[in-house]
């Protein structure tokens, strides 16, 4: 099968289009013919070796956390996945297995979910990792409740796109940071108060919206991009940071927060993810949530996709077209 293979860690030049043997589904796995693979910031971080604390790299290695495609087979003990059915999933690449930048991939059945009818393969491939991270951050780690006020830092990115919509559906009030050109976009997702992070003082703008502070901050950017974050919380409020693995990202000030009676957490999408992705699929299928804006590139342009994402120049979510 055709796949983007890495023989070592490094820059985007280590990504090599190659022919490798088609995988066979093992017990508990579904074989999926990949139509589209989502490209995440985690992909280039994984390529650089930043995920070595989480997984064991075995070369040749195939990247790719997110995919949409059709069922092509099932391993021992797997029932209920009809051949040809459209599905989407977060791959098992986070466990060191081969990922989605390939014509075929084997994924644990617990992570494979029927694709909503109203999405095409490219839109569906843009969903799993960012949506699952937003879900975990808001609901599993952030304890978001109806009526809460939440600030989504990085509202125009893929995680932010889902976080704004999920929070709004849960009955929360949402403010979000973004650049000026994305204000209309985040407001169209349900954000009540957009803050231009390039020109505005974020804590001041947040206080203007919610003078007593907010219940929850979901930081989808990390690093030093949100100074004064604890000052924006109401007493007892919570700062949840998406695990970015960014070099020099200190994460939340857990001790400082605890001293002030505030709560902090670092969040990430959990594996297997089928239960949560199933709930997300229902929201997409009913039209309550829409996927992020996407641009599709052919698999051959995988290095370009990585370079755009790594340099911060991708304006929309990138998806690789693997099969027609
Ligand atoms: N641990 C996990 O499970 C997990 C899962 C998913 C993502 N992540 C991490 O979460 C982060 C976001 O992922 P993503 O997929 O949403 O990335 P993305 O789609 O590439 O997001 C990029 C967005 O970040 C915004 N941004 C950049 N600098 C900003 C700043 N200083 N203030 C506010 N917004 C800023 C940009 O907004 P403008 O265009 O408006 O400038 C851009 O839209 C990445 O670090 C990723 O690795 C972790």
Summarize it.
The chain has 324 residues and is an alpha/beta fold. 24% of the residues lie in helices and 27% in strands.
Structure description:
The model has no long low-confidence stretch (mean pLDDT 97). It contains nine helices and 15 strands. Helix 1 (41-48) crosses helix 9. The strands form three sheets. Strands 3, 4, 5, 6, 7, 14 and 15 form a seven-stranded mixed beta sheet that branches. A six-stranded parallel beta sheet has the order 10-9-8-11-12-13, with helices on both faces. It has a two-stranded antiparallel ribbon with strand order 1-2. The chain is 24% helix and 27% strand. It starts with a strand and ends with a strand. The protein is globular. The chain has two domains: 2-127 and 291-321, Medium-chain alcohol dehydrogenases, catalytic domain (Quinone Oxidoreductase, Chain A, domain 1); 130-267, Rossmann fold, CATH 3.40.50.720. It has helices at 41-48, 121-125, 128-140, 158-169, 183-188, 202-209, 254-259, 274-285, 302-310, and strands spanning 2-5, 16-19, 29-38, 66-74, 86-90, 104-108, 112-114, 149-153, 173-178, 193-196, 214-219, 233-242, 263-267, 294-298, 317-321. With 324 residues, the chain is α/β, with parallel strands linked by helices. Residues 40-42, 129-130, 133, 153-154, 156-160, 177-179, 182, 197, 220-222, 225, 242-244, 268-269, 309, 314, 317 line the site of NADP nicotinamide-adenine-dinucleotide phosphate.
